[in-house]
Amino acid sequence: MVLQAEEGLITTSLPVPVLVATAVPVERDAVARALPATAEEVRLPGASLVRTAAGWDLLAAGVGPALAAATTAGALTAAALAGRPYALVVSAGIGGGFPPGAPVGSLVVADAITVADLGAETADGFLPVTELGFGTVTHRPPESLVRVVSEATGARTGTILTVSTVTGTAARAAALSARHPGALAEGMEGFGVAEAAAAHGVPVLEIRAVSNPVGPRDRAAWRIGDALAALTEGFGKLAPALESWNAHDR
Fold first, then answer.
1. What pTM does this model have?
2. Which of 104, 159, 214, 245 could form a disulfide with 148 if both were Cys (CB 3.0 to 4.6 A apart)?
């Protein structure tokens, strides 16, 4: 694929575009800073995306799994109808990290994207929706892709949990860690984005830069600027890694 940008000719070996879905514009803009010059803004029903010169579409999909799923599904449908379906969907943003595995400022790439609170509370504890006999709770990105991205960016690899309510107490953090011992981070959109990608048969990846520890809510300890900088740095290394994966491992 070759696209003309204002700064010159940008080439990429990715045969079709990549959709990056963040929650909010500030996260989208952090990703955009790592990529070639912006080519255009594309309006979608209820949302808009930024199309970069290298064929990456950046979408601020909204906060929470439901809105993220709906907006991502709309973008996937629009792309398919336009004859340029996506090769990959990436859920990206900042989030909480489970200490000590994912300290503030680190980058995490999901080997499992798991919804942590979809199910039922019982007298014996929480039951995920799968144990109730329906649904799914985990999407797994391609192992080869996770490996390539981790090696290229230095990201730690583990489960990223999707929650509808951000963890704000030590008790809830401990409960989540006990149920999901491989969890390194939590966010609010990854599972929703993954559900939309799965419905369209498109591979999915989730990357989070850690802005705060998962646990007691202490806004004074948040390092949002540092996390956004880590997200930009990570995506600066991600593009060539994806080209390598596409060429040799897909």
1. 0.89
2. 245
